[in-house]
Amino acid sequence: MTDRELDAAGIGDPALRAAYRHCRALNARHGKTYFLATRLLPVERRPAVHALYGFARWADDIVDSFGTGADPERRAAALTELGRSLEEGLRDGRSREPVVLALADTAGRHGIDHALFRDFMSAMRADLTVTGYDTYRDLRGYMHGSAAVIGLQMLPVLGTVVPREEAAPYAAALGVAFQLSNFLRDVGEDLDRGRVYLPADLLAGHGVDRQLLRWSRDTGRQEPRVIAALREFEALTRAVYRSARPGLGMLDPVSRPCIRTAFVLYGGILEAVARDGYAVLHRRAVVPRRRRAAVAVDGLVRAVAARLGAGPRSGRPGAPSGPSAPAHGSSCAPVPQEVV
């Protein structure tokens, strides 16, 4: 199936094909639900999505690599080297790093603004030193680079039926919504890495601080104040999903099933967290397998129907229009963490 995707996308160079295969493997291994949604795209669009995911995942892995408490200079050096490789790849279309080679090729084929990749790298560098955010506004500033730009990168790949600038705010919002879902699910894991993505003022409004979160995780005991704060963060996230939802109809019809499936499954994280009693400090909430299968089947039916009914489209990839693409920290948008 990989060769079929690469052939359909017109990718013939052996080195490029190997780079795209590498990115696809990263997607299949780490972004299971995201990868499932990607399978609903027409075959010729999948390699570009894999390249965008692969690069974001690679950078995110560097930020979280070498173990908790590792020398931050080691991670910073690796991230700096990736940044240099990125600039070289975007400038010359060449790189010894597979994820950069595929990304640079995708950016060139689809006319993706290079500033989006630089903003993403800035957010990754912030994760090396910033361990929390005082306000939601501060958090949104970080998420511009870590999540919103991922949605914006997807715009030329997925195609739309409206001008790209009209769809862009919805694409950015859905990228943020995905990442907020991951933040809620991963509160405990992020805390172990020394980070708290829930805004400090939101926590303080319920009498919660980092020390109380640490106590709850270490003791395994639930705390009503923490649950109340998590519920508020969930409500905030649902509001972002609502603001992003109108953009789904702006997509090229053949891309809608992919994004709709991702939209439903990432939103399902919120349902899983609530169903598990907001125990995210103690265990990871999981979207039930049966639920994922049902959504995937629905997406497949929609994808087949869209392709059977597809005629000439104004929103083809590369056209001056864009989708409402759907985010840890680091997303179909992705944020480089699996949903399950």
Automatic annotation (TrEMBL):
Molecular functions (GO terms): geranylgeranyl diphosphate synthase activity; squalene synthase [NAD(P)H] activity
Region annotation (Disordered) ranges: 311-340
Compositionally biased region (Low complexity): 311-334
Pathway: Carotenoid biosynthesis; phytoene biosynthesis
EC number: 2.5.1.32
Keyword Glycoprotein: no
Pfam families: SQS_PSY
Alphabetically ordered keywords of this record: Carotenoid biosynthesis, Transferase
CDD domains in UniProt: Trans_IPPS_HH
InterPro entries associated with the record: Isoprenoid_synthase_dom_sf, Squ/phyt_synthse, Squalene/phytoene_synthase_CS, Trans_IPPS_bact-type, Trans_IPPS_HH
A Gene Ontology biological process term: carotenoid biosynthetic process
Top-rank lineage group of the source organism: Bacteria
Keyword Transferase on entry: yes
Cofactor dependency: ATP
Membership in a protein family: Belongs to the phytoene/squalene synthase family.
Name of the protein described by the UniProt record: Phytoene synthase
